Amino acid sequence: MSTPSSDEARIATRYGRGPRRRPGILLTGLVIALIAIVGWFGWALWAALHPEVSSGLEKWEAVSENEVEVTFVVRLHDQDVEPVCTVEAEDDREETVGRLEFTAGEGRQTVTIPTERRALRVEWGDCTVE
């Protein structure tokens, strides 16, 4: 008759049950991966909430058939940057009739966009830092 330990060894060999492995390496790897993912999302969220420049269209007015005055506000979170802003004027068919790309400073500003024909809408393209 066989002993209980030899029966267990025979069953373990037959059915692939061996000594229990500790999940230490796998658990450590999962924790490191989780920390990396959370860190990346945290950095991406921080970068999205703290841009170098923020801007917005305040008002616009078609002053003639060939000009639109646009007033906007720029906030610089880093005073050393020079943001490039883009604004487009569109007609009633939403076709671009004027476009202006310019370097902006801090605060409220007004620019004049030359247009091909009367503009009925203005699209603020935002300001970016390159």
Total helix count?
A: 2
Largest sheet: 3 strands, antiparallel
Helical residue percent band: 25-40%
Structural class: alpha+beta
Shape: elongated
β content, as a range? 35-45%
Element string (H = helix, E = strand): HHEEEEEE
Overall pLDDT metric: 87
> How many angstroms separate the termini?
82 Å
- Tell me how many strands there are: 6
Strand order of the largest sheet: 1-2-5
Low-confidence spans: pLDDT under 50, at least 5 residues? none
The radius of gyration is: 32 Å
Describe the 3D structure.
With 130 residues, the chain is of the alpha+beta class. Helices cover 29% and strands 41% of the residues. The chain has two helices and six strands. The protein has helices spanning 4-15, 24-49; strands at residues 53-64, 67-76, 84-90, 96-103, 107-114, 121-128. The strands form two sheets. Strands 1-2-5 form a three-stranded antiparallel sheet, with no helix packed on it. A hairpin with a 5-residue loop joins β3 and β4. It is elongated and about 105 Å long. The relative contact order is 0.17. The model has no long low-confidence stretch (mean pLDDT 87).
Quickly describe the structure.
Helices cover 29% and strands 41% of the residues. It is α+β, with helices and mostly antiparallel strands.
What are the key terms here?
130 residues; alpha+beta; 6 strands; 29% helix; elongated
